[in-house]
Design brief:
- With about 425 residues, this protein is of the alpha/beta class.
- The protein has two domains: about 160 residues, Lyase, Ornithine Decarboxylase, Chain A, domain 1, CATH 2.40.37; about 260 residues, Alanine racemase (TIM Barrel, Alpha-Beta Barrel), CATH 3.20.20.10.
- Helix 3 links the parallel strand 5 and strand 6.
- It is elongated.
- The protein binds ligand LLP.
- Ligand LLP binds next to helix 10 and helix 11.
- Homodimer.
Length: about 425
């Protein structure tokens, strides 16, 4: 849990550090990440699943070298999905055998680097990739541990852009029409591959466990078919990530131990029914670990009241540091954090500084009506998919990530500078 409080002046403090001091030292906007909270969540997932299962943190949610080191120390593994994420993980000392490599279009060069580095598994996403990985592994004289990602055909209850288990989409090999069974046949035949299991990721920001239940049922069904056809029991199954977090008080997420218990029970029950040894389970939570651990600190700029409608509150960032509202209609909350106020609440829309009317950070929120330029406001739960999806739109500089812990703060990803921008512009 966050160590959030208000000091005697009404200033919000996190990890023992006041937000006005943070804004002074690091500027705004800034992502403020509570290291103790991150470690606590990582540890909770780790201990919920225990020694017979593996937790792979999904690096796409947010990755930096400090995060990699925390994960390593807390005993988690890491899921990467690009050469850049792989490079970050390796450069921060994550042992390669604790890395899983994902992606629907890994380049031959990325596959080469991953196998050469000795990653613990590559998750095969297509028929062509089965052949590609086999070739590259053979050219390196290695046998690569692989899983096959299957799309089990369930509709996860979440935004369409982040649902991934229905069959009409780019990820994975469909169970339907015997395609996944055929992929298994090929993977078992080809040299250079050691097929260790099956993988299913049904989507993201999910609260309802029934999708996982259907997925586990179908994955175990395929494990059984594989046993019957080939006489092998694949030793692992990965159920992906996707567990939802609370963005607003309407969301009611499950605790890691409840999730671990539910998933383990589902898989065990299904395997008993199929008379299979229960495989080693792994999961890939990203958002559920890092999402709640950070908030974005903004300074209020222009305020535009529109009578009878709402007040537009502009901040010094926007869709470049949080694209989720524009992209997924995501909901966020917001609070005044540099002081307290007893003023009447006003209906506000928090918007950014970009040249686009869809540049909204918080669509509908109440803020005190005495809000003024220079006040600091915070948007919670921006640890996942905000810095990692940040852009330079309008040549706005991407904000830093500042970690706080026990009264101390430090930059773990620095603010972009105009020199950074111009360095890439070599025309
Ligand atoms: N494993 C795989 C194979 C994935 O594709 C993902 C997310 C995860 C694990 C982690 O999912 P999580 O536990 O973080 O939900 N940009 C979107 C989310 C896209 C998720 C993509 N894949 C958002 O901001 O909501």
């Amino acid at each position: 849990a966050h160590t959030v409080a208000r000091d005697a002046d009404g200033v919000l403090t996190v990890g023992g550090v006041g937000v006005t001091a943070l804004a002074e030292q690091y500027g705004t906007p800034a992502y403020i990440l509570d290291e103790a909270d991150f470690r606590e969540r990582a540890r909770a997932w780790r201990s919920a699943f225990g020694a017979d299962a593996d937790v792979f943190y999904a690096g796409k949610a947010f990755l930096s070298r400090a995060v990699v080191r925390w994960l390593h120390e807390e005993g988690l593994n890491l899921d990467v999905c690009s050469g850049g994420e792989l490079a970050t993980a390796l450069s921060a000392g994550m042992p390669a055998d604790r890395i899983a490599f994902h992606g629907n279009n890994k380049s031959v060069d990325e596959i080469h680097r991953a196998i050469d580095a000795g990653v613990g598994r590559i998750v095969l996403d297509s028929f062509q990739e089965i052949v590609r990985v086999s070739h590259v592994a053979q050219s390196l004289g290695k046998r690569q541990r692989v899983q096959i990602r299957i799309t089990v055909g369930v509709e996860a209850h979440t935004h369409e852009f982040i649902a991934t288990a229905h069959e009409d989409q780019k990820f994975g090999i469909p169970l339907a029409g015997g395609q996944a069974a055929e992929a298994v046949r090929r993977a078992l035949q080809l040299d250079g591959l050691e097929l260790i299991g099956l993988h299913s990721h049904i989507g993201s920001q999910i609260f309802d466990m029934s999708g996982f239940e259907v997925a586990a049922h179908r994955v175990v069904g395929l494990l059984k078919d594989i046993r019957d056809e080939h006489g092998v029991e694949l030793p692992e199954i990965d159920l992906g990530g996707g567990l939802g977090i609370a963005y607003t008080s309407d969301d009611d997420p499950r605790e890691p131990h409840e999730i671990a218990k539910a998933l383990t029970e589902i898989v065990t029950r299904e395997c008993e029914g199929a008379r299979l040894r229960t495989p080693r389970i792994s999961v890939e939570p990203g958002r559920a670990i890092v999402g709640p651990t950070a908030f974005t600190l903004y300074e209020v700029g222009t305020i535009k009241p529109l009578d009878g409608l709402r007040t537009y509150v502009s901040v010094d960032g926007g869709m470049s540091d949080n694209i989720r509202t524009a992209l997924y209609d995501a909901e966020y909350s917001v609070s005044l954090v540099s002081r307290t106020s007893d003023a009447e609440p006003m209906l506000a829309r928090v918007v950014g500084k970009h040249c686009e009317s869809g540049d909204i950070v918080v669509k509908d929120a109440f803020l005190p009506s005495d809000l003024a330029p220079g006040d600091l406001i915070a948007v919670p739960a921006t640890g996942a998919y905000c810095r990692s999806m940040a852009s330079n739109y309008n040549h706005v500089l991407r904000p830093p990530v500042v970690a706080v812990r026990e009264g101390e703060s430090r930059v773990i990803v620095r603010r972009e500078t105009e020199e950074d921008l111009l360095r890439l512009d070599v025309g």
